[in-house]
Amino acid sequence: MKTVRDILVIDDEPVVRQGVERIGRSEGLSVDPADGGRAGLARLEKHAYRLILCDLMMEDLDGFEFLAEAGRRGNHTPVVMTTGYSTVENAVRSLQLGALDYLAKPFTADELMAMIHRGLNVCALPNGSMALPIPAPPFSQTHRLGRVSWAALEPVGTVLVGIDDQFVRTLQGIQGIELLSVGTGLVQGTACATVVSAAGFSHGVLCPVNGQVIETNAGVTANPATIAKDPYGAGWLYRVLPSNLEYSFRCLAQGLDAPDQQPEQRKGKSS
Amino acid sequence: MIRKTVGRKLTTAVNLTALLIISAFAYVNIRSHDNSLLAEVEQHAIQISQTVKSSTEYDMLHYAPSRIHEIIRLLGQEGSIERIRIMNKAGTITYSSDSGEIGKIVDSSAESCIRCHVVDPPLERLDMQARTRVFRRPNDSSRALGVITPIYNQPSCWTAACHAHPESRTVLGVFDVVMPLAAVDANLRRGRIEIVIFAASAVVALSLIIGVFVRRWVSQPVKQLVAAIQHVADGDLSKTIDESRRDELGMLARSFNHMTRKLSEARLQLVQSDKLASLGRLAAGVAHEINNPLTGVLTYSSLMLKRARTPEEQDDLKVIVRETIRCRDIVKSLLDFARQTVSKKRESDVNELITHAVSVVERQLSLARVVVLKELQPNLPRPVVDANQLEQVLMNLLVNAADAIGGNGGTITLRSSALSLSPVGVVQIKQAVCPKRHNLIDNEVRFGGKPSIRVKARSEGQEGFVHFDPVYGQASHRHGFTFDERRKVQFVCPECSTALMREGLACPRCGSAVLTFEAPPRGFVEICARASCGWQRWEDVDASGNREYVEIQVCDTGCGISAGDLMKIYEPFYSTKGAKGTGLGLAVVWGIIDSHNGSINVESTLGQGTTFTVRIPVTP
C-alpha cells in the first residue's frame, strides 16, 4: 500500500517548487517536489497523491505528455497545469486532456491555495471522478471546456455560459460570484468570472467561448447557491454573442470528449 | 516566326470575310451587268427584226423583191447591224444585206437554223428567248448576237395575187438579224476590270482600317496589360494602366488596377503580420522566462503578506504583491498583443486610475519633495480603455515629471476634464498614399511623435521634400528647401512622381492650388499648397462630427524639454536621463495612446516645466 501524500509539484524551476512547498507546508500539507516529468512519474510509483501541480513546459517530459502517461498508468490523481507561457491554446488543451484546472504563472499564495483547496476536494467526490475521458455534457448542444465550464448554443444563435458541475462540486459550497459587466469581450481559455467558495477562496472560471457578454444572470449574483443547485439551468452565468463560435467549439471538441458517457447518471447528479 | 497575336488573327479573319463577301458581290455584279447589256442588245435586235418584218410585209404581199432588197440593204448599213437576211423554208437565202450570199442555201444545222431544226419535223413555234443566240464567229472569234423571227403563213399570204405559198404551210421562212457584240464586249470587259479594281481596293482599304483599329483597340491595350502583368510578376505592384476606356478592355484595366491595389494592401498586411508574428515569438520567449522568477517573487511576497504582523509591513508587502501582479499583467498584455486577442478595454473611471497611479509613486515623490496636486473634474464620462495600460501611461508620465523636477522639489499637477472636440486638430492621418499606392507616411520625420506625410515639391526647376503635420487641421509644413510661394508649385509623389494636385479646385481661403492624397480607409485629404494658408479639408472625417474626449494633463515645474529633444521624445530608446532611463517610457505611452485612438501633445518651456496632454475618445 502506497503512503498517501498531499501534493506533488513538478517544475523544472527550483524557485517555483520551493514556493509551492513553502505555501503548502504553511497550510500543513505534505508537499513533494519533482524537477521534471520523469521524476514526477517516478514519485507516483512510490506514493499516492491527492493533487499534482505540473508545469507545462519541461525538457524531459512536458505537461501534456505527463498527463497522458499518468492516465495510461491508471493514475487518476487530479492535475493542475501551471505555465509561464500562458496561452489560451495551452489552457484549452490542458483542460481538454483532463487536467482539473489551469493556473497561469506567476500566481499568488492565495491563488495557489484556492487551486489546492479545490484539488484536494476532488477526493471527497465519488470514486473515479477524474477518470478519462471527460464525460459528455448532460444536454445536447452543450460543449464542455474540460471540467471547468460549459457553453450551450441557443436556438437564436446566442450562447449560454455556465460553470461545470464538477467544478461546482470541488468548491463545496459557493459564497459569492463576481461577473464581468455586459459588453465585455470574452476570450476562450481566460478567466470570465470569479467564484468565492464556502471556504473563502477565490477561483477564476475559464471561459469556454469567444464573444461578448450581452446578459448576465442577476439570479446567481443575488443567490450564488443557484449555481450549485442547477449548474446547467438556472445557474448559468452569461448570455454571450459568440464570435468565431465554430472555432471555439472545435477547440472544445478536440479534447477527449466522448458523447455517449453515462447520460442518466450525469443528469441525476446535475439536477 | 510571326507570333499569332489576337490582333493578327482578328485582322486575318475580318480580311478573309471581307474578301469573300466583296468577291461574291463583284461576281454577282459582273453577271448582272453582262446580262443587262446583252438584254439591251437583244431587245434592239428584236426591234430591228420587227421593223424589217413590218416594213417588208407590204412588199412581200405585193411581191416587190427589188424594194425588199433595197430596204434590207439600207437597214444593213446601220452600224449596229452586221447582217440581215431572209431565208425561205428550204434554207435558200432570198434576201440579204450581204448581196453576195443571196441564192445560197444554208444547211439546216447552221447556227441560225439549228434552233428549230434540232428535231424533225422542225419546231414551228419559238419563244422569245430561244430566238436569240450568241455565237462566236469562226473568222475572228468575236461574239455576235443573232435573232431569228419566223415568218408565219397567214391568210393574206395565200390569198395574195401571187399565190406563192400554199395554205398548208405554217412557217414560210425566217428573218435573221445578226448584230456584232464587239462594242458590248469591250464595254463589259471595262466594267469587269473596274469592278475587280474596286473590289481589290476595298479589300485592301478594309484590311488597313481594320488593322489600325484592331491595333488601337485590342493589340495596344493587351500589350500594355501584358507589360503591367510582367511588372506585377516582377514584384512591382505600383504599376497601373490607363483605365479611361469604356469597353471591356477598360473594364479589364480597372479590374487589374483594383487587383494590384488589393494585392499591395494585402502585402502590406502580410508584412505587418510578419512583424507581429516575430514580436509574438519574442513575447512568448520573454513571457516564459520572466514568469518563472516572477512566480518566486509573487508566491513568497504573498506568503509574507499573509504572515505580516504590523500594518506597516503589510502595506509594504502589499505594494510588492500589487506591483508584481502589474508585471504579470504587462507580460500577459505582451502575449495578448502578440495574439491580437480581444483587448481588455472596458469602461473605466479615469479619476480613479489617476488616484491609483499617484498612490503607487507617492512615497517616491514625497522623498524627492515633489507635491502632487489633483484638479479632477467630477462625473467624467467613462471612456472604454484598458485600465492597466492607461495606468501605465500615467505612471510613466508621473515618473518622467518627477525626474524632470529633480531633487530640488517642485509640483506636479494632474488635471482631468471632459471635452467635445471637432475632428480638426485632433484626428491623425495614419495612412497616406499616392494614386499609385505609394506610401507617403514618413517615420523619419515626425510632428509631436507622429509620423509625417512626405511629398516632393517642384517649383521652377527646384525640387525638395515637404513634410506635412499628420494631425488634421494642423497645417505646420516643414520644407526641405525654400521656394517662392507666389510661384507655381507642383506636388508629386516622391516615388513615382505622380502629380498630387487636385485639378479644378482652388483653395477657398486663398485661391492657391490644392494638393490631395488618399488617407485609407477614410477618403481623401485636401491641403492648400501655400504653407502660410493652412486650409485643409477631410470630408470623411468632417462628416462624422464632434467627438467626446476625456483629457488628462500632467504638468510639472521641472527643467523642461529643449525644442530639439521635443521632436524625439517618443522615439524608442531615446532618453535624456542617461543610464537612468530606458528610453522606452514615452514610446510605450505613445503606443498605448495610439491603440486607444487618442492623442498626446507636449508643451514645454526650458527651466519652467512641461505639460503633457492626453486625450482619449470616450467611445473607441
Keywords:
heterodimer; A: 271 residues; alpha/beta; six-stranded antiparallel sheet; five-stranded parallel sheet; 33% helix; B: 620 residues; alpha+beta; five-stranded antiparallel sheet; five-stranded mixed sheet; 12 helices; 21% strand
Describe the structure.
Chain A is an alpha/beta fold. In chain A, 33% of the residues lie in helices and 28% in strands. In chain A, helix 2 (37-46) packs parallel to helix 3 (63-72). Chain B contains 12 helices and 21 strands. In chain B, the strands form 5 sheets. Chain B has a 5-stranded antiparallel sheet with strand order 2-1-5-4-3. In chain B, strands 7-9-19-21-20 form a 5-stranded mixed sheet, with helices on one face. Chain B starts with 5 loop residues before the first helix and ends with a strand. Classes of the chains: A alpha/beta (271), B alpha+beta (620). The A-B interface holds A 13, 15-16, 18-20, 22-23, 26, 57, 83-88, 104-110, 112, 181, 183-187, 210 and B 284, 287-300, 302-303, 305-307, 321, 324-325, 328, 332, 335, 339, 341-344, 346-347.
Structural class of chain A: alpha/beta
Multimeric status of the protein: heterodimer
Total DSSP helices of chain B? 12
State the shape of chain A.
Answer: globular
Mean pLDDT score of chain A: 82
Mean pLDDT of chain B: 81
Poorly predicted regions of chain A are 254-271
**3D shape of chain B:** rod-shaped
Radius of gyration of chain B: 55 Å
What structural category do the secondary elements of chain B indicate? alpha+beta
* SSE topology string of chain A: EHEHEHEHEHEEEHEEEEEHHEHH
Tell me about the largest β-sheet of chain B: 5 strands, antiparallel
Please list the strands of the largest sheet of chain A in the order they lie side by side.
6-7-8-14-13-10
Number of strands of chain B: 21
In angstroms, what separates the terminal alpha carbons of chain B? 65 Å
